[in-house]
Write a structure and sequence with these properties.
The structure holds 2 protein chains of 2 kinds. By secondary structure, chain A is an all-beta fold. Chain A has strands at 5-7, 10-13, 19-24, 31-37, 44-50, 53-57, 64-68, 74-78, 87-94, 103-104, 108-112. Chain A starts with a strand and ends with a strand. Chain B contains no helices and 12 strands. The chains are: A mainly beta, B mainly beta.
Chain lengths: 113, 113
Amino acid sequence: DAGVTQSPTHLIKTRGQQVTLRCSPKSGHDTVSWYQQALGQGPQFIFQYYEEEERQRGNFPDRFSGHQFPNYSSELNVNALLLGDSALYLCASSLWQGNEKLFFGSGTQLSVL
Amino acid sequence: AQSVSQHNHHVILSEAASLELGCNYSYGGTVNLFWYVQYPGQHLQLLLKYFSGDPLVKGIKGFEAEFIKSKFSFNLRKPSVQWSDTAEYFCAVTQNRDDKIIFGKGTRLHILP
């Protein structure tokens, strides 16, 4: 039973570029949430997707956008990268309205130079 | 807005010592509370959770936490720590099963063998 998988594991970009991160949820899960974890901080909620729609959004600018596909996998896109976007990006999956059983991936480490 | 405060950023203990990690949240309504753990090189995983019922919650690996509503606290405890408990611990809160989860900044626990 595959857990939550994220790709790539590491990524280096320069300021102003765009990046796409990918996530495959745990088998049987239909809801994907994305979190940003800066160095020395806890994960911060970016947004959540269910039925291919953004259901909730945290305090992140419009440069952060996402998508969910019919197979429940998801992408996180960040445009016009800033140095401050350097962080570990975590994907978590669950059943809808089931955040008591949230499973996290190992994350994508994004470095913006 | 909800927030979570973890009092200790870095804790160092010897094996067999007792552990208590503090966590306070700021929200006056009904809350659901979590402790997550991230072992070195691994993904975030759920340690224990409180949704309702007995305020003393038991989790995996001998950990427990007590929800004290009057103090807005959900402290994590373990009577005797092991070297393998070295990890980062995150307290988290949410209002509902379909709501975003808000994390604290984490506490790095280092157990000396």
